[in-house]
Amino acid sequence: MASLFRNTARLRPLTRIAVPRHVAVRSLASASTPKQATAAAAIQYDEPASEAPFFEQEPAGPSIATAIPGPKSKDAITHLNKVFDTRSLNMLADYKQSFGNYIADLDGNILLDVYAQIASIPVGYNNPALQLVSRSDEMISAIINRPALGNFPQSDWSDILESGILRVAPAGCNQVFTAMAGSDANETAYKAAFMWKAQTERGGPEVDFTQDEMSSTMNNLAPGSPNFSIMSFKTGFHGRLFGSLSTTRSKAIHKLDIPAFDWPSCSFPMLKYPLHEHEVENAAEEKRCLEEAEHVMSTYHNPVAAVVIEPIQSEGGDNHASPAFFQGLREITKKHNVLLIVDEVQTGVGATGKFWAHEHWNLSTPPDMVTFSKKAQTAGYYFGNPALRPNKPYRQFNTWMGDPARAILFRAIINEIERLNLVENTAVTGDYLYNGLEQLGQKYPGQFNNLRGKGQGTFIAFDHPKRDEFLLRAKTMGINIGGSGASAVRLRPMLIFQKHHADILLDRLRKMAADLA
Amino acid sequence: MASLFRNTARLRPLTRIAVPRHVAVRSLASASTPKQATAAAAIQYDEPASEAPFFEQEPAGPSIATAIPGPKSKDAITHLNKVFDTRSLNMLADYKQSFGNYIADLDGNILLDVYAQIASIPVGYNNPALQLVSRSDEMISAIINRPALGNFPQSDWSDILESGILRVAPAGCNQVFTAMAGSDANETAYKAAFMWKAQTERGGPEVDFTQDEMSSTMNNLAPGSPNFSIMSFKTGFHGRLFGSLSTTRSKAIHKLDIPAFDWPSCSFPMLKYPLHEHEVENAAEEKRCLEEAEHVMSTYHNPVAAVVIEPIQSEGGDNHASPAFFQGLREITKKHNVLLIVDEVQTGVGATGKFWAHEHWNLSTPPDMVTFSKKAQTAGYYFGNPALRPNKPYRQFNTWMGDPARAILFRAIINEIERLNLVENTAVTGDYLYNGLEQLGQKYPGQFNNLRGKGQGTFIAFDHPKRDEFLLRAKTMGINIGGSGASAVRLRPMLIFQKHHADILLDRLRKMAADLA
């Protein structure tokens, strides 16, 4: 399936949800709209926002009733902690009362949510179109008749894929292996890379396994279990299961005490900001990293089957690199016959002003595999090269191999993205938000440092010297916001985040900056 | 939460679905019951089955209209294969037309399904009670407002756990870490074991990580990434991601070309059947395996943090061992301070005549962790020891950490198991089925070899000299059945499989045996 989203910012509206935009949304939602938050006047910032809201029943602004957590939440958290680890709990949410960009809690607090479940809610809480799809007979059947997709796929599985997941496949990819979440999406892609490399070295798909391979693998030993590797980048994040964690290099706390494969890492460019003031240094830094990458991938003692990289290192601190860097990496991987896996788990599905962040790079040849999860609400890896299908069945296989219910949901998300033209929305709103933050940075020096994400939709971050205090204080101002790396504040609003939401966010950030100045 | 299912075969009926059994089911289902299959007269076998059907609208028997795959299925499979690997495809299913124990395809074939999506459908296709729950506002919200459970759990998460997953927690377990599927359930349990072992060696939860640990783990090296191991058993299966695959020892095709950890394996008892004719040899075999296990776990060069074992090795060929073996293993692990992880992914949730298969063992101290998936339709690991909660937050963490929608479904499955008394049903029906197979074995020598699973509910298997032909031929007789290991036919009917279904199965198996005799 060709992607409708490739090389175009404006998307063709779908007839699938053939209803006038706001009227229909209002009527669909009427049964389950949470009560309006007490209107907190949206304070204008910079230039007035004028576009019509996507969801008119959304609260007009945040509304703070108690400290967070308030008394009801505290009681509930104490209870939950008896059976479920709550030490990473950020906020106990009341999703019945959440709507659009706003998340509610048990104590009546309603926050503008620019963290969005770690960048994974695409089109708003209680989105009416998703609600409708979730009530459909098709969804009900997918929930209660969950198939072992590799053995007993449902008869409409090709339709679900082609009208959903594959309709937005990146250029060069026309097949998918579905999975459950980001970690196993990456790990199954790694497995495909290892099988491909072994097959290449063996002399092609027709060459049979040797007896030595067949017996040694049962003892986890070479040659059957070869010492191949995946190369990843320092400060990168690719998941937390054993293979994916071996490529994750974000923070020690993610990795400590867990055995890891002897796989190589190399430096990701650490650029200086603002970019236009450091062009020469940054180009040199990217050149240095590419040279290191080429050296490592061509010399590491455990041969490198694939390189995995995020378009923007997200958990690791919102580290960006230029298209030239990624073009260079693609060239090096081609030269050394190493596969390139682009991990779009956090960057994918519209947040950067393109449907896939790697569309910003204009590569001469596409990535070999692209992984996705989070905003897709399902997961997997895309590929195009038929040699990446293992040469025999049951080599890439598991019981469920994904979840048709979540694939149906992703299709509805894609339809909603088209209907509301949300990829363009993130591009336009992102520029507006970036400009506002740039102005805040000028007004409050030292508080919005290394602002990054220009031209990358709403995928924006900055460093703050008191980051953790900043995040906590944001909640008291009605903003739910997240961090990444050691000192970054990362903005991960939903795709339905509009200029009037940006105005509210900028206003609250301005007040916080004034308090901290 | 104490388990309602422990030490009791008869379950208290729930008031949650407070409706008369058959009347309610019929009325709930009326909107979406598939049309009745052409009644194939159920032929009585051995003794007549007399119990009332759980679902009166279920087809009276299999119905075969075409070869499988038929013309419509063939076309659809060809189409699907362009975008999705279909080489492991067994049967393209039409779930709209499937009901209860019967699976349908596009060509009008309706088969009695004793494979059940690789042992993962618990209470029947289009189960009316699950249908009702799937239409609830609670489910809709869980589907469209999917939380990052570690950060922003929904306010009723403790209730969903306590009234569902934890209500059936195995003895000794009162906490859960939720996951997505069997592989990551096992891998997160392994991670908990490694963190526990490192903490023990470090001197307790209060002892901080050293600088050396913090820096070495970023390069995947010891001491931060220690060379600890998980011991597993030969012919065991624990999943296909990198950590779980390193403990899987079922077949070479599952492991070839994938790098693996240097982790140890040891022999699982290979018992001789019938058991009562080989008591002395089998006891010696189990003793030998225990001695080997103790030797390996106490001497392996990569120190063993935990042993993982299936109560019945399923993918590896339906290999059983006695309670005495498992009691011995528990003693050895205690003695050497090694954790015992029981992998109940395939055996759990009622199929063996107990809710958890390891309840058959009467252990003096419970397993340290128990993993689950498949029939639970969600996944995770149970634990009781508070030291298995890592000493700091964000050590055991990922974005979704499971799926509340699937947790809500599991709760509905538990309710249905209670309402229909399904654990007792598998015990009673299993005995009936086992006896029938034993008689078939006497009548057709050499075709129902090494019959196993006596007293293990419907978790029954036998070896057949022409296994693959046998499985294919079964489809033409209206039976969907699976294999395991090299030569086993494994029966994995749903929990709603009753004596009248067993009669049909036994009748068809008898005809096949007569043809092959």
TrEMBL record, chains A, B:
Alphabetized InterPro entries for the sequence: 4NH2But_aminotransferase_euk, Aminotrans_3, PyrdxlP-dep_Trfase, PyrdxlP-dep_Trfase_major, PyrdxlP-dep_Trfase_small
Reactions mediated catalytically: 4-aminobutanoate + 2-oxoglutarate = succinate semialdehyde + L-glutamate
The UniProt record lists the keyword DNA damage: no
Keyword Transferase: yes
Family matches, as Gene3D superfamilies: Aspartate Aminotransferase, domain 1 (3.90.1150.10), Type I PLP-dependent aspartate aminotransferase-like (Major domain) (3.40.640.10)
CDD domains: OAT_like
Keywords: Aminotransferase, Pyridoxal phosphate, Transferase
Cofactor requirements of the protein: pyridoxal 5'-phosphate
Annotated transmembrane regions: none
EC code(s) of this entry: 2.6.1.19
Entry's family note: Belongs to the class-III pyridoxal-phosphate-dependent aminotransferase family.
Protein name: 4-aminobutyrate aminotransferase
